[in-house]
Specification:
Oligomer: single chain
Shape: flat
Radius of gyration: 31 Å
Structural class: alpha/beta
Distance between the termini: 42 Å
């Protein structure tokens, strides 16, 4: 089915679920442009399951696992085949002495053996489609374990099967309630225990459809399951706990698939700190990558990052169940002015839109709420109206406002009978509206009837225990629908063939070296990036002639392949206005270079560009995502403020502008203290040209740093005043 659905992939004739990208489905750098979606139907719903190492001997770990797998197989309607050369039967089922004795074409094999490698080849001969390896001692243990894991992955590829694990667990074979309805959460975890809070949501009536415990991801990875879950019609949200990503491009393509299908992905990603990254690497043996780059990738593809498992639980549950917002306005409704003010403060700080209700709407609310109470938003009812018929009228009136898409009612603690009546009114109103109604039940007890039965008993209410989690979830809800409504996949417009610039640029690269400023600027010229008028000279007389051609005033700089910080060495002279100054500057620069043992290829005599905003645009390589493009405040500010934004190619004009909007110093581009507005269009053009360079030159260009890029007043473009390029 999937092979025909995604026609840009060649289906694997072995039926392993691997879909191979065709040459016309690759970008200019030879990287795939669409997610390869594995067909995992028979993994999660197999018709036949082999358990290699099955046991029913009391006291053995494999016995409990075998018992659970038998129960799971019965629930999903699969026939189970125990495999153990030392037993004739296992729990009354006929036991096969080896994999070779199994019926051909089994769907799934669960390997309860310490060394799964020898078994993988046998499974391939038996044409088994999927295997699960529980064994540990692989990449999480160091270099030797990583080498063993590589051999295991290669064996799975040769065998034509898909492998989950190693270092995984039984979570894929948990009990999922069949009596629950509505959109479901699909769960992915690299540490099984971290998924428990999501799994227990079923006890609150929230459906869970799948659980993929990916372990070390020798073969099947987080990205595979995101792609698969995102195309299932019943998926309301994908929740994930991830310690490291196997491959950045695969993850980006999977997140793109989810964004195209408007399926929210909510993720805890460990590794914000050095300690977290180190611990995660020791657990699953995967790279955590640069956290700044991962954050940028999440924003770029709409992945919602949360920090705690409680946030993961609450946010995924809301996104899975709530209908798209009819409007973005959020109204806070409470029985206490203090409660409303507190929540409104938190909501506003988080960026939630709290519109002031219209005068007509306020007048309507004052029919039931005393005039002296504020009803502009937040709405304070003073308490008494919730005890009678007025309570429901107030709620309905707020929800009837076309500017309101979300109603949030924080109830800080139980105060029956008033809190019981308020909870019932909110639940009843939620059943009759398409708008999102949220309740925060602040009691730490959680056994009250109003909470356990009224609030949790409603499939339409979103109930939270803390203000913070409610704010986080509602912000994610509005942000997700805003993002997917405007989303256009960057992979659709990615270049597939090299430009003429790439051919020119490759001729300028010198593998394994850092280019001189002069050579780096030639690289920029090849991609149409403007540089100052300049000439490279090797004599004092030549420098005077060059200054006359360039035009005074000029800047003079030493140029050499290994000069990274010219200013600190005194190898830059600015504002030279005469031939004598130029001649003296040449002699001084060459003397300093000689004293500092700096190899020169000459002295650059450059046009002096004074007026503009100094920015930085560059390329670096991330171990997970490959080439990344950075833009930010330049000059000395880049090292002091570190005010930069990063994105992963490919991306378009809108994403480049989003990068600039993230900068704390973005207002400098608007013009401050009498300065004219900068040419943002010209800056965006440079960012996109640098991106094209990064994609086309790929690993050949290890690093590029244009600093400063002088962004001139509007309509005048941007000029690269200095550049550093490192070739691989």
């Amino acid at each position: 089915m999937l092979g025909s659905t995604y026609s840009t992939r060649d289906p694997d004739p072995a039926g392993s679920g691997r879909l191979q990208p065709r040459p016309d489905d690759m970008d200019v750098g030879g990287r795939p442009l669409h997610a390869t979606v594995p067909d995992l139907d028979r993994f999660f719903r197999p018709e036949s399951v082999a358990v290699v190492g099955a046991s029913d001997a009391e006291g053995r770990p494999n016995t409990g696992i075998t018992r659970q797998l038998i129960a799971w197989s019965e629930r999903v309607g699969a026939r189970l085949y125990p495999v153990n050369p030392g037993r004739e039967t296992v729990f009354g089922l006929p036991c096969h002495p080896s994999v070779a004795e199994l019926p051909e074409g089994m769907d799934l094999a669960v390997l309860l053996v310490s060394d799964p490698l020898p078994v993988i080849g046998q499974l391939g001969e038996a044409k088994v489609r999927f295997a699960v390896a529980f064994a540990s001692g692989f990449a999480e243990t160091g270099a030797d374990g990583a080498a063993a894991q590589t051999r295991l992955a290669q064996a799975a590829t040769r065998a034509g099967l898909r492998l989950l694990g190693p270092n995984t667990n039984l979570n894929a074979f948990e009990t999922f309630r069949e009596d629950l309805t509505g959109p479901a959460i699909a769960l992915i975890t690299q540490s099984g225990h971290q998924g428990r809070p999501i799994h227990t949501l079923q006890e609150l009536g929230i459906r869970l459809s799948h659980w993929a415990p990916t372990g070390n991801e020798a073969d099947l990875e987080t990205a595979d399951f995101i792609s698969y879950f995102a195309q299932l019609p019943g998926t309301g949200a994908i929740a994930a706990y991830v310690e490291g990503l196997k491959d950045g491009r695969s993850f980006a393509l999977a997140a793109d698939r989810a964004a195209r299908n408007k399926v929210p992905v909510v993720m805890v990603k460990v590794g914000r700190t050095e300690t977290g990254a180190r611990t995660a690497a020791s657990h699953t043996g995967k790279l955590t990558g640069s956290d700044a780059v991962i954050d940028a990738a999440f924003r770029q593809f709409g992945v919602i990052r949360v920090d705690g498992l409680d946030e993961l639980q609450d946010t995924a549950a809301l996104l899975a169940r709530a209908r798209p917002p009819a409007a973005e306005g959020v109204v806070v409704y409470s029985i206490s002015g203090g409660t409303g003010a507190h929540f409104a403060d938190l909501a506003t700080a988080a960026g939630l839109p709290l519109p002031t209700l219209s005068e007509d709407k306020q007048a309507e609310l004052h029919q039931w709420i005393p005039e002296y109470l504020n009803v502009a938003n937040p709405v304070d009812n003073g308490g008494h109206p919730v005890g009678d018929w007025r309570g429901r009228r107030i709620i309905d009136a707020i929800l009837a406002d076309p500017a309101v898409g979300v109603l949030i009612c924080p109830i800080t603690g139980p105060f029956p009978p008033m809190s019981d009546k308020l909870a019932q009114d909110l639940a009843d109103a939620a059943e009759e509206t398409d708008k999102l109604v949220c309740v925060v039940w602040g009691s730490p007890i959680g056994t009250e009837d109003a909470y356990r039965h009224t609030l949790l008993g409603s499939s339409r209410l979103a109930t939270f225990r803390t203000f913070g989690n409610c704010v986080t979830a509602v912000r994610a809800y509005l942000g997700h629908h805003r993002f997917t409504a405007a989303y256009r996949s960057p992979f659709d417009d990615a270049p597939r063939t090299p430009s003429s610039s790439a051919r020119k640029a490759r001729a300028l690269l010198r593998p394994g070296t850092q280019l001189s400023e002069h050579a780096a600027k030639q690289l920029l010229r090849a991609y149409g990036i403007r540089v100052p008028r300049e000439q490279l000279v090797t004599s004092a007389a030549g420098s005077v002639r060059a200054a006359g051609l360039v035009g005074y005033p000029v800047v003079m700089k030493a140029s050499g392949a290994q000069i990274a910080h010219k200013t600190e060495l005194g190898l830059v002279k600015v504002g030279l206005t005469s031939a004598s100054q130029v001649r003296d500057a040449y002699r001084e620069l060459t003397d300093i270079a000689r004293y500092e043992s700096v190899d020169l290829d000459g002295i650059l005599v450059c046009q002096m560009v004074e007026r503009g905003v100094e920015m930085v645009v560059g390329v670096t390589h991330d171990p997970l995502f490959g080439p990344t493009v950075t833009a930010g405040l330049g000059g000395v500010l880049v090292e002091i403020l570190r005010d930069t934004a990063v994105r992963i190619p490919p991306f378009g004009d809108a994403t480049a502008r989003d990068m600039l909007g993230e900068l704390r110093g973005a207002r400098l581009l608007d013009g401050v203290r009498g300065a004219p507005p900068a040419d943002v269009d010209g800056l965006v053009d440079v960012i996109l040209r640098v991106q094209r360079m990064a994609m086309e030159l790929g690993d050949s260009l290890a690093e590029l740093d244009i600093n400063p890029l002088m962004v001139l007043p509007r309509g005048q473009g941007a000029v690269a005043l200095d550049a550093l390029a490192v070739c691989r």
